[in-house]
Write a structure and sequence with these properties.
Number of strands of chain B: 7
Distance between the termini of chain B: 54 Å
Strand order of the largest sheet of chain B: 2-1-5-3-4
Radius of gyration of chain A: 28 Å
Strand content of chain A: 25-35%
Shape of chain A: flat
Strand content of chain B: 5-15%
Oligomer: heterodimer
Largest sheet of chain A: 7 strands, mixed
Radius of gyration of chain B: 20 Å
């Protein structure tokens, strides 16, 4: 079906590349947009969760007798029956559904669960205490690290630590579900409208065709919302039993604990270099946890992968904490922090400007030209030469200013996507995909691609997404959405346009290949006088709309030059640290981002700005604190699981590397790439300011002061 | 807290002691200390209108004035204004995010002041003028200048925090019609965003302050 297609040449694009406002902007900002957590169905029940307070325990009994007698209770589903071994606090034991949310909460409290409490372990930072929880993931050796370290003129030894974070999506995980007469109406908050249909169907043992998924908006996912999850399955079961729709969305205290964790990462890193600043040897012993199954594994050394001599070990730590979920650019922000921090420490020991040091070692990356160009551009934007001082030389007062560099890379490309285009005889156009708009602007981008093909305005296109009635499209993860949906939309709209050309050609007495669609007309190429208005051309369809479904081929997107991956990015942070209070203040963050063909510059820049802000949160505030005494998460709310506010972020400046060469690569997703370098950059800026490495993220006053005046390792 | 579980009668006024069920009422639902004064107030008010009645813990009829119109509903005294809006009145522009007065996603304006609807009891909001995002965001198909400015400056991504931000910004501009950039950063510190849209929000609020003063809408198309 789908012929070879190409992006229209840069010079002739009318709609792609324009900074249009997001199409659903007013709906969302005015509060009219209905998220699935906003929906209420007639007769629906509300479900509340009974959770284990213990991090490691065996369920001895679950007594529902009191709960069943509570007012309004209609159905209870036990998901962790007697005999179940609980591996993290917050594990769902049962779901209780009642006529009102308040009644459901009351009844959940009335469920009596007896546990045999087992020994738990929830802290992974000290490998000596981890003992049998450590699982070696192997050793990797390249070159001759032993010899290289012996011969190295300068060697540094460092320790760096980054804790587990919570996704903390503002719209909690959950769904409204209605299982009635063999059909399941499913309204989840999901990054995977198409694939969650099969996930749910499999777990409910119903045909996927009997599950209908719908979601117009999602209030944040960041990698944590791909599955139906226990709440999906349990609420479905209650719905089936009661014949009523059931709504379950997690409380914040549950959301922070069980619905999304980014793995931690810790590493002892040794670097060897020659006096001229060339890195010759790398050694790292890293460990990380992602819950009971282990998890996190940062790719080290990061970006500077071609260091000639390397020895690496990694250990996975099994903890009694909730399992990890993918978090924007899984493992990359951690790897960037670990690698770039060690590099800045080496530059400091060499008495070398880190900017020069990073540039010098760009040869050890797979794209030296990109990184050198970006380092120079970022330095210019941050006024590096003017503002940077050697480590520890930031003046005599308590306020110390520092600058630091971070780098990142991400692949991306595009997921499998199928798109149906309908051109109606009245001239209206629908473009349908089983995709989702995470707030990245997917709807708007699809409309722009379709409008470009048809020579229409982007507001003329009705984009229909978020429903399994539309052709399947991939999950929104790994920055693959734009590469997926834009290319399937291009293929589908080009094929639909061809059908319209066929009809219009006979009316105009020309060959279809002589036609073009521009400025709201179907006309002979270059001849505006010989043509039909879009509407008139569509009227020639009679009573039968054109409907064309076409899919992309994710394996050939790169060779077709439709989509690409493999971006580089550099960010520089400029901070001021008060060494008396330990408070770190952001002055400025600059981001230079490699990219491909940009469908909408305004929305692309928003991705980079948002990523920088998210990383400021991660660098300065966020940490999931698990308590070894109780086994519980201590900051399972938004008062103590801290996010930056509007005042905390300083100024942010973004430079997108939009140029003809990058444009020729095709589209590249930007969800992950700009989230990577920020924590590394801030880490290095803090070290530069205070004259000493603060080894532990986040750079809260206690961690800064501990590094300055304590044992330098931990608070 | 625990003191409300076993209140010392000496601490209660004679009028309060008279209600035979109020102790039972408080014990029955184990309300927190922070909630109690509001309940007492409400109970006193209810007693003047329904002399025989002691309200709660089951649902009681209340009337809220929302966006200039009365809304009658039955809620338990413990139901927050936010849950009354979202779960009973289908006014879902205010979002439930932290549910503990931290994030601002549920911001509404009550008697000319921005409040977190998750931290106000519905019964306590009686007699107050409550403005939600639905009350001003759109005039027909025309967006309020703040809504238009949020869209213009792309001050939203997932959008879940956005209505709360717009309401907080409206209240802020009602009290600071000509803010400086620094005042905007200070004044909107009560709202949190996870996608990272603050750069756009700063610009949007400054921009909207100018168009609102000039009496014009931000051009939108």
């Amino acid at each position: 079906m789908a012929e070879n297609v190409a992006w229209p040449p840069l010079s002739s694009r009318k709609v792609i590349g324009q900074s249009y406002r997001r199409l659903d902007g007013i709906e969302k900002a005015s509060g009219r947009a209905k998220y699935n957590s906003d929906l209420i169905k007639p007769g629906q029940l509300w479900a509340s969760i009974v959770s284990s307070p213990h991090a490691h325990a065996k369920v001895k009994s679950v007594d529902l007798s009191a709960a069943e007698q509570m007012p309004g209770v209609k159905g209870i589903e036990v998901v962790s029956p007697a005999g179940t071994e609980i591996q993290w606090a917050g594990t769902e034991i049962a779901f209780v559904a009642a006529e009102s949310e308040e009644q459901a909460r009351d009844a959940a409290r009335a469920v009596k669960v007896e546990y045999e409490v087992l020994e738990h372990f929830v802290q992974d930072e000290d490998p000596k205490k981890v003992g049998s929880r450590l699982k070696a993931a192997g050793e990797k050796i390249e070159g001759d690290p032993e010899k290289a370290f012996k011969e190295a003129e300068v060697v540094i030894d460092g320790y760096y630590a980054i804790p587990a974070l919570a996704h903390c999506c503002l719209e909690p995980h959950g769904n409204l579900i209605d299982w009635n007469g063999g059909k399941v109406e499913y309204n989840p908050s999901t990054q995977a409208v198409t694939s969650i249909q099969g996930d749910l169907a499999r777990q409910l043992s119903v045909p996927a065709a009997n599950v209908h998924v719908h979601m117009d908006y999602i209030g944040g996912g960041f990698g944590s919302k791909f599955q139906a999850d226990r709440w999906g399955i349990a609420s479905a079961a209650i719905s089936k039993k009661t014949g009523r729709p059931v709504k379950v969305f997690l409380e914040r205290s549950e959301e922070v604990v069980i619905a999304g964790v980014r793995p931690s990462a810790y590493a002892k890193i040794k670097l060897g270099a020659s006096k001229d600043g060339t890195i010759t040897a790398w050694e790292s012993d890293s460990w990380a946890s992602g819950g009971i199954t282990g998890g996190g594994s940062p790719p080290l050394p990061y970006v500077f992968t071609k260091i000639a001599n390397q020895r690496l070990t990694h250990n996975a730590v099994a903890l009694n904490t909730a399992p990890i979920r993918a978090w924007r650019a899984p493992n990359h922000p951690q790897a960037s922090f670990l690698t770039c921090s060690a590099m800045e420490d080496m530059a400091a020991k060499l008495n070398m400007d880190p900017l020069d040091f990073f540039i010098k070692n760009a040869a050890l990356t797979t794209r030296p030209d990109t990184y050198i160009r970006q380092l120079k551009k970022a330095a210019e934007m941050a006024e590096w030469k003017k503002n940077w001082r050697p480590r520890g030389q930031s003046g005599s007062g308590p306020l110390k200013r520092g600058l630091g560099i971070g780098v990142g890379t991400w692949n991306g490309l595009g997921h499998a996507s199928s798109c149906r285009t309908n051109i109606h005889p009245d001239g209206s156009v629908e473009v349908e995909l089983g995709s989702q708009d995470l707030g990245t602007g997917t709807r708007t981008a699809i409309a722009q691609v379709a409008a470009e093909t048809f020579g229409l305005k982007h507001t003329d296109i009705k984009v229909k997404i978020g429903d399994t009635a539309y052709p399947p499209s991939g999950t929104s993860g790994g920055s693959t959405t734009i590469g997926g949906v834009s290319t399937s939309t291009l293929k589908s709209t080009v094929a639909a346009r061809q059908k319209l050309f066929d009809v219009a050609a006979s009316a105009l007495n020309v060959q279809p290949d002589q036609l073009e669609a521009v400025g709201g007309k179907i006309q002979v190429k270059g001849n505006a006088t010989k043509g039909l208005t879009w509407k008139a051309a569509c009227q020639k369809l009679g009573v039968t709309p054109i409907s064309v479904t076409a899919e992309n081929n994710p394996r050939t997107l790169r060779q077709e030059k439709l989509a690409d991956g493999g971006t580089g990015g550099v960010q520089i942070a400029d901070v001021t640290v008060d060494i008396e209070t330990g408070v770190v203040k952001m002055n400025k963050m600059v981001a230079v981002q490699d990219c491909g063909l940009i469908v909408n510059p305004r929305l692309a820049e928003s991705q980079v700005l948002g990523a920088c802000i998210m990383m400021i949160c991660g660098a300065l505030m966020e940490e999931r604190i698990a308590d070894q005494v109780t086994g519980q998460v201590l900051n399972a709310d938004m008062e103590f699981y801290k996010l930056a506010g509007i005042k905390d972020i300083g100024e942010i400046e973004v430079h997108m590397e939009v140029d003809p060469e990058n444009d020729a690569r095709g589209v590249i997703g930007l969800g992950e790439p700009p989230t990577i370098p920020g924590i590394a950059a801030i880490s290095n800026a803090v070290a530069n300011a205070v004259g000493k490495r603060v080894p532990r993220v986040p750079f809260t006053p206690d961690h800064v002061l501990a590094a300055l005046y304590g044992d330098g390792r931990n608070s | 807290m625990s003191s409300t579980k076993d209140p010392n009668p000496q601490e209660l006024s004679p009028k309060e002691q008279r209600g035979f069920s109020r102790r039972g009422f408080i014990q029955g639902i184990g309300v927190s200390g922070a909630v109690t004064p509001a309940l007492l107030e409400q109970e006193a008010a209810a007693q003047t209108t329904t002399p025989a009645g002691v309200e709660g813990p089951s649902a009681v009829p209340i009337t809220l004035t929302i966006n200039g119109k009365p809304a009658k509903l039955n809620v338990e005294p413990r139901v927050t204004l936010l849950d009354a809006l979202r779960n009973r009145l289908n006014l879902t522009g205010a979002k439930r995010v932290c549910d503990r007065g931290t994030c601002g996603a549920c911001t509404v304006i009550m008697d000319g002041k921005a409040v977190y609807a998750c931290s106000v009891l519905a019964i306590d909001a009686q007699g107050k003028q409550i403005t939600t995002i639905e009350g001003f965001a759109m005039q027909g198909n025309q967006p309020h200048p703040l809504v238009a400015a949020f869209v213009e400056h792309d001050a939203q991504q997932c959008g879940y925090c956005t209505p709360g931000f717009v309401v907080a910004a409206k209240d802020f501009l009602d009290h600071h019609p000509s803010p400086t950039y620094d005042q905007v950063k200070e004044g909107l510190g009560g709202n949190l965003c996870r996608c990272g849209t603050y750069v756009g929000v700063r610009k949007a609020v400054l921009d909207a302050s100018k168009t609102m003063k000039a009496g014009k809408g931000v051009k939108h198309g």
